[in-house]
Amino acid sequence: MNRQELEARLRQELAIPFYNAKVAEREYSEAEFQEMKAELKADIEQYAHDYVNESNANG
């Protein structure tokens, strides 16, 4: 899949409609997509966790 297809699938599967991946214009394998998806999902979950913890700490 190319960069545009990769971005479209990430947007759809992770429900982030305005996401634009900062990746090279090349062909990506399904394994590379799954790895990127897992990393992005983990980053989003960590960000949400950190945000909630900081919000609770600030009252």
Give a quick set of tags describing it:
single chain, 59 residues, mainly alpha, 2 helices
Helix-strand layout with pairing:
Blueprint: H1 3-14, H2 30-57
What can you see in these coordinates?
The protein has 59 residues and is an all-alpha fold. The chain has one domain. Helix content is 68%, strand content 0%. It is built from two helices and no strands. The chain is elongated. The model has no long low-confidence stretch (mean pLDDT 92).
Order of helices and strands: HH
In round numbers, the mean pLDDT is 92
Q: How many DSSP-defined strands? A: 0
Annotation field: number of helices = 2
From the alpha-carbon coordinates, what is the Rg to the nearest angstrom?
A: 14 Å
Number of domains: 1
Q: Return residue spans where pLDDT drops below 50 for at least 5 consecutive residues.
A: none
Largest sheet: none
Rounded to the nearest angstrom, the distance between the terminal CA atoms is: 46 Å
Organism: Lactococcus lactis subsp. cremoris (Streptococcus cremoris)
Protein name: Prophage protein
In short:
The chain is mostly helical and 59 residues long. It is built from two helices and no strands.
